[in-house]
Design brief:
Helices cover about 75% and strands about 0% of the residues. It is an all-alpha fold. Strands 1-2 form a two-stranded antiparallel sheet. β1 (about 85) and β2 (about 90) form a beta hairpin. α7 runs antiparallel to α8. It starts with a helix and ends with a helix.
């Protein structure tokens, strides 16, 4: 996989190289900052299910397209959140301005679409729909900003769109470019979706339970921004003193002391264990998807990675 990651890095840089050095610098900024490249890894792994062969050129391209969509969404997210750092470097909006960040994000999405088109109409249509799903998920989150009555279903719908859909697409593309049968492609898609749901729930739990030092940023960023995630929603729904205290603080921008109080309430309530229980259902979904896939080392690794992800917040 290390060699395939290097192939992805080269493909990413090649995809954003243009005759305009200024645009190339901006578009490659977060690529140069590094990253786990989980979505390309999903595409590559999915392409290898039921086969011992190495990753094909098409699988590398498919993973690259998914990563470009992810990066483009980060450029836009940082503008909306007014973020100043990302992956240990200045955000594009902080360094070059919001207009440049928005246009560079659009450019990355365009490059992703161009690559997807080279892989056929089904992949092109799939990626286009997924970009739409990312937007839908983000809009669902935005329309419930500072809403203490946000339903859990709204949260799940939002993360399904803004996070899980791209993991599902990454895995599906791996199956499509490898000419797997439809049952296998659908199982890969279901696995990617379930993993993405666990990934986002775990990320949201860590935002509330990890320290500033562990996160590399202030804990509770989402709640400060008025985004109430699963542990908060479960705490609010639990009733009792914790729910009443939390409800009285939320619903507006928070001062530093209020943020600390919210973190104390959520960390000491049953909201986090309830969120973990919710994530366990998606781990089970991922297991069932793996049961439908051919046995082998790749599927064994897929089983392990989802369970290990949730274990990172239950140890």
């Amino acid at each position: 996989m290390a060699h395939d990651r290097q192939r992805v890095e080269a493909a990413l840089l090649d995809a954003v190289r243009t005759p305009d050095a200024y645009l190339t610098e901006i578009a490659s900024h977060l690529i140069q900052a590094g990253g786990k490249r989980l979505r390309p890894v999903f595409t590559i792994a999915a392409s290898q299910v039921g086969s011992d062969s190495g990753a094909s050129h098409e699988a590398i391209l498919g993973g690259t397209a998914c990563e470009l969509v992810h990066l483009g969404s980060l450029y836009h997210d940082d503008v909306m959140d007014e973020s100043t750092t990302r992956r240990g470097v200045d955000t594009v909006n902080a360094r070059w301005g919001n207009l440049q960040a928005i246009l560079a994000g659009d450019f990355l999405l365009a490059r992703a679409s161009e690559i997807a088109a080279s892989l056929g109409t089904e992949v092109a249509g799939l990626l286009a729909r997924t970009i739409g799903r990312l937007c839908e998920g983000q809009i669902e989150e935005l329309r419930h900003t500072y809403n203490v009555g946000r339903p859990v279903e709204s949260y799940l719908e939002s993360i399904d769109g803004k996070t899980a859909s791209l993991y599902a697409t990454a895995a599906r593309i791996g199956g499509l470019v490898s000419d797997r049968d439809r049952a296998t492609v659908d199982a890969l898609t279901a696995f990617g979706s379930a993993y993405g749901m666990v990934f986002q729930i775990v990320d949201d739990i860590l935002d509330l339970t990890a320290t500033d030092e562990e996160l590399g940023k202030p804990a509770g960023h989402d709640v400060v921004e008025g985004v109430y995630t699963l542990p908060v929603l479960h705490t609010l729904a639990s009733g009792g003193t914790a729910a009443s205290e939390l409800s009285a603080i939320l619903g507006k921008p928070l001062e530093h002391s209020e943020r600390e109080k919210v973190l104390d309430i959520v960390r000491s309530s049953g909201g986090v264990p309830a969120a973990v229980e919710h994530a366990e259902k998606f781990v089970a979904d991922a297991e069932r998807a793996c049961d439908s896939l051919p046995d082998g080392a790749t599927v064994d690794a897929m089983r392990q990675t989802t369970a290990s992800l949730l274990a990172s917040v239950t140890r």
